[in-house]
Design goal:
201 residues; mainly alpha; Four Helix Bundle (Hemerythrin (Met), subunit A); 2 domains; two-stranded antiparallel sheet; globular
Amino acid sequence: MQPPEPQYEDAKPSPSSVQRKPPPGWVIGPDGKPCKICTAFRNWPRNVKASKVAVPASDSPGPAPATVAGAAAVALTQTDTTPLRSDNCPPDVEVLGRATWTFLHTTAAYYPEKPTPTQRANMLSLIRALPMLYPCSHCASDFDERVKEHPPNVSGRLGLSKWLCERHNEVNEKLGKEKFSCAIGNLDERWKDGPSDGSCD
């Protein structure tokens, strides 16, 4: 059996040993591949058809090829970075997150003031099931950590609403978003009653 060949700093790794870098902004899932549901739609790669941009040959009249090529590059960049999301597209991490928080906050707003033992158990089951079932793996593990650090308050509507607001604010802080006031009046206005001006009635 021969000893392995020495590796030198300038030696190039074989193509099979090189892991492809994910596209910018993509999140890698637990399987080591780019995770579509974990990535914001604005970071999904776009299908740009360069064949639609005609670049004249060097002997053609008009701008120099470099100028046209530059204009084509600008056009491609603009097309490539414009998030044109149709309503029938699958959700990205932001759409899924907003829908999940909407569901949880609204459920808490209508949770009983004095829940029965069964209602408490069901709410705990729902919250504890989320990290196991949520499609975005890094979101799920983050929420799981938060639940372990701050056990859910399922004692009643007020406690649950405040607990969810605090967890949501932890996520907002990580994302650089503004925190929401967890005063029950603000929570009820947002998730149950609507603004006092009647604009949602």
